[in-house]
Every structure is written in structure tokens, then in C-alpha cells.
């Protein structure tokens, strides 16, 4: 995957991917949605049942909450995808081998979109992109850079912010100060501020 690809061609290549066992149970490969020319890219974990059925990322209950939080923060110009493109059976967490097998597709997407800012939605995206296992509640809301890690080359110059996964937010009904949902609103507000400011925000090297 060294030559530049179009997103359309990437979609075709992904549709015939057999790099891991998820091929056996998927209905569709879920590549991405949104504006591939946007400065903001969002990377989630993996498609669920609704995404597998429609072929689009984040269209189920979690996606609807995510869309509404993004919209309320004024973040409607972005490209959305997942760390892996096929649904793990029963919505289990992707294995390390599946993350590795799918990483070339994610790397190609990042190269094509060439975002300035990236939201890493949930612990699996944090692990898949920055190679950091655990610590999402501590690391969320801060800007990171991919100084090392599996995708450092394609992320040079980018700033990345881990945020809590909307499926986690859905477990908490209330929106009291300090609640996961309120923290996520704060994080997304910081993304809006960063997009409006010149340059990229200072970051913690990963
Ligand atoms: N959760 C994710 O991480 N991605 C989706 O596309 C849907 C749910």
C-alpha cells in the first residue's frame, strides 16, 4: 500500500479484504463517512450490528449520541472511521491481531484525509493508534502526538485527543458536573477551540 489511493479504491480493496477471521461473519466492510477533506478525523473502535448492516460507522445508538455531542460542539465537518473495518462477533473487543491486520487500511485512510486533529474514541482506538493500553480516563481530553507507535509516520504533525466512548456515556443517565458526558462535552469544546486557533495545540509525546 505505498502508492496513493483514492478513498473509493480503498473501499473496493477493503471490501475484498481477507486479512483476518472477521471476514467470515461480516455482512459489510465499514470504511468511513463524512468529509475526507476535513481537518478533523475521528477514529472509533469497530462496527457494531447497525454499522455492519448499513456499511456506515457510528450509526447506531452510540453513533447517534456521538453525532449529537459533535453537533452541539459545532464539530460537523469531519471524517469518521474505526480502527477496524469489520464487526467482531457479539461486539466483542477487537483482538491485538485484528487491530494489527486492519492497521494498513487505517494508515491509508489517515494518509488520504491528512487531518490536523484526530479524536480517538475509546480505549481501543487509543491502543490501535498510539499503542497505549489502558488509561483512557486519565489521558482523555489532552492533546497527544504520535512521536512513536504503529502509525507515527502517517500522523506526523497531527494532534490526537482521546475521548470517552459514547457506549460508556450511555451507561450514565445523568449529566452532572464531572460526569462522563459532561467531561466529553468539555473535551469536544477544546477541539473546537483548537480548530479555530492558528497552528496545532501543544501536545504530550506518546
Ligand atoms: N462503536 C464504534 O466504536 N464504532 C462504530 O462504528 C459503532 C460503535
Summarize the structure.
This protein is α/β, with parallel strands linked by helices and 206 residues long. It has 8 helices and 7 strands. The model has no long low-confidence stretch (mean pLDDT 95).
Description of the molecule:
The protein is α/β, with parallel strands linked by helices and about 210 residues long. It has one domain (about 20-195): Uracil-DNA Glycosylase, subunit E. About 40% of the residues lie in helices and about 15% in strands. It has eight helices and seven strands. It has helices at about 5-15, 50-55, 60-70, 95-115, 125-130, 135-140, 165-170, 180-195, and strands spanning about 30-35, 40-45, 80, 115-120, 145, 160-165, 205. The strands form two sheets. It has a five-stranded mixed beta sheet, sandwiched between helices. Strands 5-7 form a two-stranded parallel sheet. It starts with 6 loop residues before the first helix and ends with a strand. The structure holds uracil. Uracil (URA) binds near residues 60 and 62. The site of uracil has 12 residues, from helix 3.
